[in-house]
Amino acid sequence: MSSEKKKLGLTSKIFIGLIGGLILGVILNLFIPSSYFRDTVLVEGIFYVIGNGFIRLMKMLVVPLVFCSLVCGSSSIGDTKALGKVGGKTIVFYLCTTALAVTVAITVATVIHPGIGLDMSSIQKGDAIAAESTSAVDTLLNIIPENPIGALADGTMLQIIVFALVVGILLAKMGERAELVGNLFTQCNDLMMEMTNMVMQLAPIGVFCMIARTFANLGFDAFIPLLKYMGSVVLGLGIQCFGVYMLLLFVFAHLNPFRFLKKFFPVMGFAFSTSTSNATIPMNIDTLEEKIGVSRKISSFTIPLGATINMDGTSIMQGVAVVFAAQAYGIELGLKGYLTVIATATLASIGTAGIPSVGLVTLSMVFTAVGLPVEAIMLIMGVDRILDMLRTAVNITGDAVCTTIVAHQNNELNRNVFNSTEEQNA
């Protein structure tokens, strides 16, 4: 009976939805002829509305969840000196892994040459979205909110994070004088967690519809001209996720990487299916606490922060895309160009919203920095949805590995939980 209940758990339902949607999508694409019912009613009607409705529900939760979670996380650490120590380590780790990710991507793409011999006439075109380039000074100033309420309304994540950290630090400093406000934020955080659990019950249906629509629209013929590009991105993501991260986990936290991957895999699967880092925040925090043994004091601070500033998977896509476009257009970048890509992609990942396909928007910033035509983004838009799923899984794995290492260094990691074979059910 218990094994039957385990099979019907939320994670299992999400994976059933994922596989079911994939199979149905492929069947619709390959075996069902184009018709009004298939294209308009089913794929762009029912699947689109339900899938995007679920994503909207998750987005609805993001701002209040991140704000309340960061306020509670930073205030629960208590000692502002300890908070600064944790925050400093986390940000340095995030920036280093992102720069490393871009380097891996450029190296892989330089070896594979994805853009050489590309038949430009066979590429699926789309509408490129340009992002305004911002100076380094303005980027720094834009972190500070002029109007915190406006930042919350607009969903400007870096400004929300700064304001939440200031509120949390002052709550910790004021202690009993702000006990009532502290309790209010704790209860708001609990409320948002309950709301998240409620929305998550719809995840299997939402995942099924999103995956079915993706595979129904993307015929396998569309992959052929871009297989080398896709292969380069996937290889880069694999090296970062299963090589770089697991090595860091073993060296800095002395943990078994295989056990970590086994326990964390459901979160990776959910991130893959939703393509949004923000949607995985609650599941990521819960899994780290219940299966990995990371104190919620640490994870409630580092995971929302990572979902905003740590986009290693996105940076890998951008690094490969730059090499791919440069080769396709016959533009020589040189060492200076590659160094510019590493710096720009690292900075562009900071403040990138954790929502589907946003990497394509920030990619235009990277292209502009090295003199590539922004129109080149059209070359990869046709296959980006599949890669977006993979890089989101890498993004959230990077957040979790960093959080685990920081927890270990601050004696907030329960190794008995990590080493236990029995996993608690939510």
Describe the structure.
The chain has 426 residues and is mainly alpha-helical. Helix content is 75%, strand content 0%. It has 19 helices and no strands. The protein is globular and about 65 Å long. It starts with a helix and ends in a 7-residue tail after the last helix. The relative contact order is 0.17. The model is unreliable at 1-6, 119-131 and 353-357 (pLDDT under 50).
Element layout with pairings:
Layout (H helix, E strand, L loop, with lengths): L1 H6 L2 H21 L5 H42 L2 H33 L23 H6 L6 H7 L2 H18 L4 H22 L2 H15 L9 H27 L3 H18 L6 H12 L3 H14 L2 H17 L5 H15 L10 H11 L8 H4 L2 H26 L5 H5 L7
Helix pairs in contact: 2-9, 2-11, 3-7, 3-8, 3-9, 3-13, 4-10, 4-13, 4-14, 4-15, 4-18, 10-14, 10-18, 11-12, 11-18, 12-13, 13-18, 14-15, 14-16, 14-18, 15-16
